[in-house]
Amino acid sequence: MLLSAEGLTFxxxxxxxxxxxLERVSLGLxxxxxxxxxxxxxxxxxxxxRALARLLPDAVGTLTLAGRPAAxxxxxxxxxxxxxxxxxxxxxxxxxxxxxxxxWDLKVRSAGHPPPDGALEQALxxxxxxxxxxxxxxxxxxxxxxxxxxxxxxxxxxxxxxxxDEPDANLDDxxxxxxxxxxxxxxxxxxxxxxxxxxxxxxxxxxxxxLVGGHLTEVGP
Amino acid sequence: xxxxxxxxxEIGWPQLLLSTGFVVVVGVxxxxxxxxxxxxxxxxxxxxFLQLVALGLVLRWVFGIDSPWLVLAxxxxxxxxxxxxIVKRAPDAPPGILGxxxxxxxxxxxxxxxxxxxxxxxxxxWYRAQYVIPIAGMVLGNSMNGIALALERTFADLxxxxxxxxxxxxxxxxxxxxxxxxxxxxxxxxxxxTINAMAAAGIVFIxxxxxxxxxxxxxxxxxxYYQVVVMLMVSAATAFxxxxxxxxxxxxxxxxxxxYIEKGYRTQL
Lengths: 221, 269
Prior knowledge:
Mean pLDDT of chain A: 91
Oligomer: heterodimer
Shape of chain A: globular
Helix content of chain B: over 70%
Number of domains of chain B: 2
Number of domains of chain A: 1
Number of helices of chain B: 10
CATH topology of chain A: Rossmann fold
Largest sheet of chain B: none
Order of helices and strands of chain A: EEEHEEHEHHHEHEEE
CATH architecture of chain A: 3-Layer(aba) Sandwich
Helix content of chain A: 25-40%
Distance between the termini of chain A: 19 Å
Largest interface: A-B, 34 and 24 residues
Structural class of chain B: mainly alpha
Strand content of chain A: 25-35%
Distance between the termini of chain B: 46 Å
Number of strands of chain A: 10
Low-confidence stretches of chain A: none
């Protein structure tokens, strides 16, 4: 098991008063596996991803990655290996290149080597963004383009697990297919993916989980 | 507004009453135009009178006693008041910021004030109230504005950039790496008014302290030298203070695990 969660519990204190969003949720992800999470709006899918990325204050439960408990990883190291891609793509002021290389500015990857321009261009090409120059100002990307650049930014760091929050919410069918192909290659290379999805189904997912009333159940492929 | 200390022309009660006449005219104007400012204006006028006269009396008393402990106590009181004001002016700042504001005011206030009175003006004895208290007042008043601006900007900017902060944290950024852009923007915002004031001094306006000294009969060139020292040290105090206050407090908006506590989440706590 690459990533496993046991007894994840989180109580929200937002309106309309305290309610349990995650109640002793357990799940496991194998290397190379793509798993979809579905469920009604507000059922806590995003909350679940945040908890797995250790980005949810006050969440309780046991997380392990590659057999080691979460406590053995510094929070930043955990997040660099179990990487959440938030639903809203956030570009930093600067060029597309600067945004794609941003992860290597962080201390957690100070020993790593950023990919060369050729690799960045190839990656852009692979998600249908061949026409985007690396020197393009990131603030001039459309919502759908920014979503794919943000996805690439996460994928290029080669985390063990990618947590994708509606990665194709703002994409047309063609771009969505390219994103699916990219996530498929990520999984084929040994990465695990947990995806929150509302709409489209595609054949890539090995399993589908359903989150309702704080409980996670497997509903088949 | 005239702060005459033993000046060439004395101001007495008749002159004070006469100046009130102008405010009364403004009050009438406010009534006629339905500005609704009469009440605020009246209260502000009375406060100006009472506070400044009280200040004059207190300073006269303090100058007379000439005790280092009294001077230090007054400085600490001024710094506590400044720290309180900073907290009030930065409503987006997290709770627990009073301590770091106070630490900042104490550190920059004492360092800069005594650097000026001790090293530059070379006051004898070191605690002479006539120099130490007005200079501390200028240091604290100006740096307080800059610090409040920088703190307010830090947390407002972090909230505006919450999505980016989350994305960065999710990629493994530390709180400093995630908040760095906001911190830099905020410190810059806190310093710009001071830098602008330095650039415009003497051309667009005559700074307050120089005005006061000239009105009190001092040689304009001597007053100018004093003003240069005051402006430079106020800028330094604002810069040190803003940097210190922001660095001491931005981390309070993150959990121990380095997660940014978003606005919506905070209201749940």
